[in-house]
């Protein structure tokens, strides 16, 4: 028999779901059906969501009261959207999916339910029965055997202590005198903190003074008695106002082992209470709150948690934050009813600083956030007025915070805070386990990322390539866009060196924007710091562009310029952080990472970016040092080579030079051709023992000494003897030197006369026109070995068409396994060069040497070819 009814209609908008929950909650509370309110609100929320969100129609909610319970009907105007019939053989799918979840809850929570169709409506109804309880009981625990009841020593005394707004005792009851031994006149006016022995549990950091300011608090601490001993007590604090409107706190205290007198009983669903009273197994409280099965991933678990918390307290929004490892900040990880894209991964400090989250470590209820602006920074500007927040703790350590908010003020009381804390206590361990699992996966991925990054950065010493690698490794793995600033030296300003965006079409606009704003300050402090300049500049540029467009009276369609500016503003409108690039105790640049509009970086991503910046800074500095030293080395090496070959009338001259070793332009081999005086030219080809910079130093000494001595009028033997003395004067730095030195005089008849001294060097080869090859000099001692050196010169006349070939031992000692080119191999190649120019001869010799072996040459090589073409015309 129906004894009362209530009905309401709701528009097809998302906000109607919260309004429908409030309607059902208020109706059932008014009927005295508080025991089934939670189940009714959860089922109504799911069914109204199906109607106004998924079906897209308005919803009609009808509540019918009977003697045994309540029937609630939810009707929509979309009968074509079929609902599966429940039967034993029908699988209604996973509870995680959107469709069908309301029906699963009906099947799990309702005594009975059903679906009715009309031509214009579809109606889903469910029946909730009242629990069968004795008359007069509203909420009760199960009856227990006498030996399980709490033990009280004699008379149970409840001390009543009143504390004024300053924390001083203003009232002290007789039971308080009996429990602690102080008369009222001994303690009135003294701060309670003088008597309280507050437990400093790691992770709480809330003292007795803070607890007295809370609207409601329960817990254990100690009171120092008149005898000096501390009596453990269980206390219940209630914040009230006296007749004068002044706030004060009433404290009820009992001995700790008698806490059952004051402790608020845990809320257990009626079905569970009945089951426990019968000795059966109760439902897992975690599954009661979250549902089964629980999501495997952390994000899924957190999202379902905030949705269940919102529904449980009939809120308009809910949010969950996780603490960083050091518990100094909280990071938004899940929300519902809030702009999640703007808030996700946003961070707020716990203890101090602007926008601190002061209520994170203790349950808190705010009746009106407009009276305490900034108390919950996450809700600023969202329209939420009242909120209840509770901590998530594991073994006394703060791991997160769960909150539910509503648009109307004074929605929540301490009862809702206790209910939410009960739920938070049940899910805290599961959330922490899932968070640690996610953190472990992220750390494994971070390790692989850093190993790969280190390999890539170590694989190049090119500065530009290092800059490109830095940006490519961060985008899009760590950030949406990246900019690298470099600092040449301490006196230089940061320079924008590289810009990258995951959308290539945004790179030019981003580069132009960053070029117009001052670079970030090169602060050496490690870690990421927020840089707001790009977002502010992008917003101002977009605003100016739009205003100019409107001022010119252009059509309403957005021009390409405006579109580009707005797209750039959107691309850099999120969080931007700067990490210093510090190498060898000097800031050499900054790595700037950015997110698009209203996005924040995760703490783990920032830590990974910091690790990457340290490696990248060292790689960039190594590339800089390598480039500088390479430039110096190449400049010095180029000074050891003759600037250019002179043009000798009547003689063709060609030189090919190859220095062994990466980055070497000059090694131990050298050559030179230079004018001595009118009609006379000197030429030389030599080989210093060894390769690299040490050999190049002797090379410079030999080449410049030859020019100087020859131009002073010394003959060939005298030039080499003085050079020998100079090499020996170098002492420990001296090196052996083989040298072929000669002087050349072109003749009027087309021939050329040469005077040659071959000091330990491979003999020069003469190629005649008939193809015969013969040595053009005799071997003599090399330089740098003995003091008394007697050398002589030999005269050779090159007839028209003859070629003189001079090489270093890098040519003749070219090896392939056990084979060596040798003098014979060189002679064989030279015999094929009859009739070729000097350039062609040198090129054919070098090609033959390179093809003789597959490996790169291990020794410097120099080839000097001179040909007398003669006076006849070809």
TrEMBL record:
Gene3D superfamilies in the cross-refs: 3.30.450.40, Histidine kinase-like ATPase, C-terminal domain, PAS domain, PPM-type phosphatase domain
Segments forming domain PAS: 160-190
Alphabetically ordered keywords of this record: Hydrolase
Family matches, as SMART domains: GAF (SM00065), PAS (SM00091), PP2C_SIG (SM00331)
InterPro entries the record matches: Bact_Sigma-Reg, GAF, GAF-like_dom_sf, HATPase_C_sf, HATPase_dom, PAS, PAS-like_dom_sf, PAS_fold
PANTHER family reported for this sequence: STAGE II SPORULATION PROTEIN E, STAGE II SPORULATION PROTEIN E-RELATED
Record's protein name: SpoIIE family protein phosphatase
Species name: Streptomyces vastus
């Amino acid at each position: 028999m129906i004894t009362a009814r209530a009905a309401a209609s709701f528009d097809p908008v998302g906000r109607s779901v919260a309004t429908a929950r409030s309607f059902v909650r208020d109706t059932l509370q008014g009927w005295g059906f508080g025991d089934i309110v939670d189940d009714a609100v959860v089922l109504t929320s799911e069914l109204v969501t199906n109607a106004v969100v998924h079906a897209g129609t308005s919803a009609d909610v009808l509540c019918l009261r009977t003697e045994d319970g309540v029937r609630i009907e939810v009707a929509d105007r979309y009968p074509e959207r079929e609902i599966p019939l429940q039967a034993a053989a029908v699988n209604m799918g996973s509870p995680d999916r959107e469709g069908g979840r309301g029906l699963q809850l009906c099947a799990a929570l309702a005594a009975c339910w059903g679906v009715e169709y009309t031509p214009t409506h579809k109606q889903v109804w469910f029946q909730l029965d009242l629990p069968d309880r004795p008359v007069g009981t509203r909420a009760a625990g199960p009856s227990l055997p006498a030996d399980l009841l709490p033990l009280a020593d004699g008379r149970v005394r409840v001390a009543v202590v009143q504390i004024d707004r300053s924390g001083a005792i203003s009232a002290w009851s007789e039971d308080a005198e009996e429990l602690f031994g102080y008369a009222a006149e001994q303690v009135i006016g003294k701060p309670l903190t003088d008597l309280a022995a507050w437990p400093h549990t790691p992770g709480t950091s809330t003292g007795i003074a803070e607890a007295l300011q809370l609207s409601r608090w329960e817990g254990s601490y100690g009171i120092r008695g008149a005898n000096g001993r501390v009596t453990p007590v269980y206390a219940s604090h209630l914040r009230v106002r006296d007749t004068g409107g002044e706030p004060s706190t009433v404290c009820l205290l009992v001995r700790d082992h008698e806490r059952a007198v004051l402790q608020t009983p845990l809320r257990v669903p009626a079905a569970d209470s009945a089951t426990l009273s019968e000795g059966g197994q109760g439902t897992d409280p975690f599954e009661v709150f979250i549902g089964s099965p629980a999501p495997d991933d952390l994000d899924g678990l957190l999202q379902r948690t905030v949705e269940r918390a919102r529904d449980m307290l009939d809120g308009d929004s809910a949010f969950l934050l996780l603490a960083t490892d050091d518990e100094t900040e909280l990071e938004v990880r899940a929300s519902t009813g809030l702009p999640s894209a703007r808030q996700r991964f946003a961070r707020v400090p716990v203890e101090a600083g602007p926008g601190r989250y002061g209520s994170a470590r203790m349950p808190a209820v705010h009746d009106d956030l407009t009276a305490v602006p900034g108390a919950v920074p996450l809700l600023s500007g969202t329209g939420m007025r009242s909120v209840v927040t509770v901590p998530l703790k594991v073994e006394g350590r703060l791991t997160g915070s769960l909150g539910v908010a509503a648009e109307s003020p004074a929605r929540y009381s301490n009862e809702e805070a206790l209910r939410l804390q009960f739920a938070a206590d049940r899910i805290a361990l599961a959330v922490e386990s899932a968070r640690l699992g996610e953190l472990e996966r992220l750390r494994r991925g971070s390790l692989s990322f850093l190993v790969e990054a280190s390999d890539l950065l170590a694989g190049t010493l090119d500065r530009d390539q290092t800059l490109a690698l830095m940006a490519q490794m961060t985008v899009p793995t760590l950030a949406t866009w990246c900019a690298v600033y470099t600092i040449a030296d301490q006196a230089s300003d940061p320079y924008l060196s590289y810009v990258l965006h995951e959308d290539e079409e945004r790179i030019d606009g981003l580069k132009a924007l960053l070029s117009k704003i001052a670079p970030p300050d090169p602060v050496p402090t490690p870690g990421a710091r927020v840089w707001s300049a790009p977002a502010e500049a992008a917003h101002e540029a977009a605003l100016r562009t739009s205003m100019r467009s409107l001022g010119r009276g252009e059509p309403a369609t957005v021009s390409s310029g405006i579109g580009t500016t707005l797209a750039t503003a959107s691309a850099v409108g999120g969080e931007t952080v700067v990490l210093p690039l510090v190498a060898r105790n000097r800031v050499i640049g900054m790595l700037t990472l950015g997110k698009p509009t209203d996005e924040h970086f995760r703490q783990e991503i920032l830590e990974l970016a910091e690790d990457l910046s340290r490696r990248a800074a060292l790689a960039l500095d190594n590339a800089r040092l390598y480039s500088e030293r390479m430039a110096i080395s190449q400049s010095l090496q180029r000074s050891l080579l003759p600037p250019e070959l002179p043009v000798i009338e009547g003689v063709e001259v060609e030189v090919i030079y190859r220095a062994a070793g990466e980055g070497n332009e000059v090694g131990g081999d050298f050559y030179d051709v230079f004018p001595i005086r009118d009609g006379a030219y000197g030429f030389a080809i030599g080989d210093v023992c060894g390769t690299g910079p040490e050999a190049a130093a002797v090379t410079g000494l030999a080449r410049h000494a030859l020019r100087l001595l020859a131009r002073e009028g010394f003959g060939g033997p005298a030039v080499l003897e003085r050079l020998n003395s100079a090499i020996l004067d170098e002492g420990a730095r001296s090196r052996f030197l083989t040298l072929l030195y000669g002087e050349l005089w072109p003749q009027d008849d087309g021939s050329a006369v040469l005077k040659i001294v071959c000091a330990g060097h491979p003999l020069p080869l003469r190629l005649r026109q008939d193809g015969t090859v013969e040595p053009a000099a005799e071997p003599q001692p090399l330089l740098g070995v003995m003091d008394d050196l007697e050398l002589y010169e030999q005269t050779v006349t090159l007839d028209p068409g003859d070629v003189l070939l001079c090489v270093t031992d890098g040519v003749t000692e070219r090896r392939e396994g056990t084979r060596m080119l040798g003098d014979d191999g060189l002679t064989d190649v030279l015999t094929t060069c009859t009739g070729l120019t000097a350039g062609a001869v040198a090129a054919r010799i070098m090609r033959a040497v390179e093809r003789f072996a597959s490996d790169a040459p291990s020794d410097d090589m120099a080839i000097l070819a001179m040909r007398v073409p003669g006076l006849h015309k070809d």
